[in-house]
Amino acid sequence: MVDYPMAERFFQKARQLEPYRLEDMEIFSTTLWHLRKDTVLSTLAHELVEFERLSPQAWCAVGNCFSRQQEHDLALKCFQRAIQLDPKFTYAHTLSGHESMANGNFEKAQEHFRNALNTNKRHYNALYGLANYYMTCDKKDQAEIHYKLAMEINPNHAVLMCCLGKVYEKMGRNDDAHQLYVRACLVTPQTPLAIFKKAKSLYKDRYYESALIELRRLKEIVPEEPKIYFLMGKIYKAMGDKVKALQNFTTTFNLDPKMMHVVKTAIERLDNDNEISMTTSAMSDTNLEGESSSSAAAAAFVGDDEEHNQHHQQDQVVHGEEDQSSAYTYDAFVDE
């Protein structure tokens, strides 16, 4: 359900009742990955290794620790160690697939996902991973098939709905995509990704007021997510309200200075008159030392990360650990 805080709460309760439990601790470690609780994750991995060094669960937890530090090669070695200990440990195959995707080794990733399905054909996480692989290869038809297969197993998963919706958008099936986003919001009303996708869909269909209503609701959940303000700026621009558009573009930059090039281009496209064109220099006089999204907000927003992929493959804005300003282009960002 992408409710990581609640998942952590009950995993912790289970560990209090059974401190030496190994079963499902690999899932707990991924939960902590999404919540960005590095210290808790490191402690869990250390304890699991002390309990049973030869358990695949322990090595999955250790691998997740390295993954959080962007040490993808070391993480992959840990997941492979888990497979060595138990070749039928499905989750380790899937995590290896996502880690390979993060390394850009897409063919190897596909192999790992298929190995996971060979051990458990109902492992929807691996189907999700394969769908992402096909999207990377621009094989939209195959991506659609595999997202649907995953949804047959987990039909009420908001993230899967959003991913399939993205495929439909790329196919030009905007109405089908919108219906999925609406359904995702009904299934899990507090999933930020679903709300954002719905708002973006409304914006594309020029239902500007409805899109703003969704984004205002989203701001209450993740108030420091720059993508929200960027989209609001685009909506106000489309509505002809340049003042509010400029305010939201500036807020976007305050929250994530690495988006400077995107914001600058958006502002330049607002208008060519002096008042707007001088805003770039005016912005430098403002307090632009705002930090990027808080960890909790970012983790919640990139709920597009079901079980380990989005956090690897599409870290994009909120996950960037290094200066990626040169990677930002206006058109590419708008497409995302």
From TrEMBL:
One of its GO terms (cellular component) is anaphase-promoting complex. Residues 308-322 have a biased composition (Basic and acidic residues). Keywords: TPR repeat. TPR repeats lie at residues 56-89, 90-123, 124-157, 226-259. InterPro entries: TPR-like_helical_dom_sf (IPR011990), TPR_rpt (IPR019734). The keyword Transferase does not apply. It comes from the Eukaryota. The keyword Ribonucleoprotein does not apply. SMART domains: TPR (SM00028). Residues 284-336 are annotated as: Disordered. One of its GO terms (biological process) is metaphase/anaphase transition of mitotic cell cycle. PROSITE patterns: TPR (PS50005). PANTHER family: CELL DIVISION CYCLE 16,23,27 (PTHR12558), CELL DIVISION CYCLE PROTEIN 27 HOMOLOG (PTHR12558:SF13). Belongs to the APC3/CDC27 family. This is Anaphase promoting complex subunit CDC27. It comes from Rhizophagus irregularis (strain DAOM 197198w). The lineage of its organism: Eukaryota, Fungi, Fungi incertae sedis, Mucoromycota, Glomeromycotina.
